[in-house]
Amino acid sequence: MKQVPIIDTHTAARMVKDGDTLLQGGFGMTGNPVHLMHALAELGTKDLTFIGNNAGEVGLGGGRLLKNGQLKKLIGSFFTSNPDAVKAVQAGQIAYELLPQGTLAEALRAGGAGIGGFYTPASAGTLIAQGRETKEIDGVEQVFIKGLRGNVAFIRAWRADTAGNLQYRMTEQNFNKAMATAADLVIAEVEEIVPVGEIKPEHIHTPCCYVDYLVQATLTLEDLGMSASVSSSKKVDESRMNMAKRALEELKKGDVVNLGIGIPTLVADLITEEHDIILHTENGMLGVGPVPADGGGAMDYPVNAGKIPVTALKGSSYFDSADSFAMIRGGHIDVAIMGGLEVDEAANLANWAVPGKPLLGVGGAMDLAKGAKRLIITMTHTNPDGSSKIVPACTLPLTASGVVSLIITELAVFNYTDNQLTLIELMPNATLEEVRAKTSASFVEKLN
């Protein structure tokens, strides 16, 4: 079998030319080819179009290229987490294109499979869809997305054999697997290189025909940034925990459930084996367990969508981001629990665009809102200024239309009985008068 050349990081970085489109694997700093990115930062290669879920952290991975001014355009899902990206966009120094996380993963898979594009319901009717072709398919509005390819892909795997076959570790598949198929030149940074035959065929995730060069580089805690460890201190106020407990009551044995960041993550702390609930995380894991009790971090454990190290329960499985969102869009997620900024009388949700901040992070919410069989929103009843979050019609940019099944706040629980916003329950210590006073939307009352 062929032998793939093994090179150093600087030789690899010199293969990227000014003006190239560069694919960078990773979800946060997990599965991030950080050593290759840092070598490229040292060369000063410029005018690059960067395609990735996010641009790394400040000074790490793609964040280092961003700080150097080497990137002319960002194409990805979540750049808000890097303050340098926000500053560059606000200053007009860099262009950007946002795609929902699942759309980004599928666009890379399409590009790698020689498919020109595809239609998806994610982002239909939102700002993300503006300027894109849309059509109705089987009664559902869908948005056309072109396949994505790059000149060079920098990816990260755990092991490679000398033929270039790759094996990923835990949640490190994320965007790496699709990106390995979608570039003219693929360079894989790996922890270990072994002789051909040492990786069993059934353990190979990326076959050797996709990989052009290998680079051996050892990860350290510093390379993982904020994902390196778990904080042992976690203070949660009573009202937030009450919302999480009420959301848990909605889940049934055997449900496959996706939890968004914020209040929804608290539900995970309440789930026990007796609940028999399977937690899904969009970066590529089914069977998510609680955070590690030993204080271990992302060097030892998988991470969830909040980039927090978690444990794996018996029967857990790992996969890449494209497969993860195929589960979501394909209707295999029973319940999604998300936070919200606004929900209105028509069950529309707005939860991705924070008022007064650049629209730089959409994440996986649009795919989940459209794809989950049931969508539960947990959020505070009002904004800090006292204005209602349950409104007649959303004024913030929409995440999805007509998708919300249940709203849980610290004051009340609403559903959409007969397609009408309906108050069905008061939360502990709340009064009907308070709910009426703090809710600007019209609703009917069917309290138990």
From TrEMBL:
Pfam families: CoA_trans. It is an enzyme of class 2 (transferase). This is 3-oxoacid CoA-transferase. One of its GO terms (molecular function) is succinyl-CoA:3-oxo-acid CoA-transferase activity. Keywords: Transferase. The keyword Ubl conjugation does not apply. It comes from the Bacteria. NCBIfam families: pcaI_scoA_fam, pcaJ_scoB_fam. Belongs to the 3-oxoacid CoA-transferase subunit B family. Belongs to the 3-oxoacid CoA-transferase family. The keyword Disulfide bond does not apply. Its EC number is 2.8.3.5. It comes from Emticicia soli.
